Amino acid sequence: GRQAGPSRQRWPPVAWQGNEGGSVTDDLQTRMVGFVEAVAGAMGVSVAVACVPIDDGTRITIDGEAGELFLRHQAGGLDALQHLVNAVFRAEHPDGHIVVDCLDYRKNKDEELRQTAVLLAERARTTGETQEIGPLNPYARRIVHLTVAADPGVSSESVGDAFLKTVLISSADA
Questions:
Q1: Which residues pair with 171 in a beta bridge?
Q2: E-assigned strands of 16-162?
Q3: What angle, rounded to 10 degrees, do the helices at 72-89 and 105-127 form?
Q4: pLDDT at 12 over 50
Q5: Closest by Cα among 71, 92, 75, 73 to 17
Q6: Which residues in 25-37 are b (16+ Cβ under 10 Å) and which e?
Q7: Under a CB-based contact definition with an 8 Å cutoff, are residues 158 and 128 in contact?
Q8: Three-state secondary structure string covering 5-43
Q9: With the C-alpha atoms ordered 13, 19, 21, 22, is the resulting torsion angle positive or negative?
Q10: Mean pLDDT score of the chain, rounded to an integer?
């Protein structure tokens, strides 16, 4: 007969359940945290993972020195992990975005990006010249568009046909 191989843990460890309630349930938060912990564990990394509600969704935070592994190569690992978490849980996540952050990397980068967008919007409004920022991934483009939308004197649009696109910021008078 055939020898049984090493046991494999199925993901998710609990049965998938639809989210009928319209809000992020404790079960969904537990499974998202468990998923991130499982990925980190598979990488041989021990980190503390938590789920925090934010204005427009859920923020999953990763803390611990070993988390720096996700931040290497311009945080490519963090971007990949965020993509995976969204691919697995987006359908169940009732509203808003799921953001995965590590050691406040994204929180700090997001603020830098907002400040840059405000500066470029001001420049577009005062000079009348269209300003460019990018290429940016969808997450970063969303931050720029939301920041620019807060200023009625300017508008923004994404251009390009690849995953990374450039955002153009123009004066509303143009």
A1: 154
A2: 48-54, 57-63, 97-102, 131-136, 154-159
A3: 100
A4: no
A5: 92
A6: eeebbebbbbbbb
A7: no
A8: CCCCCCCCCCCCCCCCCCCCCHHHHHHHHHHHHHHHHHC
A9: positive
A10: 86
Tokens (6 digits) for 3: 């020898």
- pLDDT (tens digit per residue) in 112-124: 999 999 999 999 9
Burial class (CB in 10 A: 0-12, 13-18, 19+), 143: buried
Q: What is the pLDDT of residues 57-111, one digit of tens each?
A: 899 999 998 999 999 998 999 999 999 999 999 999 877 789 999 999 999 999 9
Structure confidence at residue 173 (pLDDT): 78
Burial (CB < 10 A; 0-12, 13-18, 19+), residue 162, is: exposed
How far apart, in whole angstroms, are the C-alpha atoms of residue 77 and residue 169?
Answer: 29
Instruction: Dig out the tokens for 104 from the structure.
Output: 């406040």
Answer yes or no: are the C-beta atoms of 14 and 31 closer than 8 Å.
yes
The answer to whether residues 145 and 151 touch, using CB atoms and an 8 Å cutoff, is no
What pLDDT score does 95 carry? 73
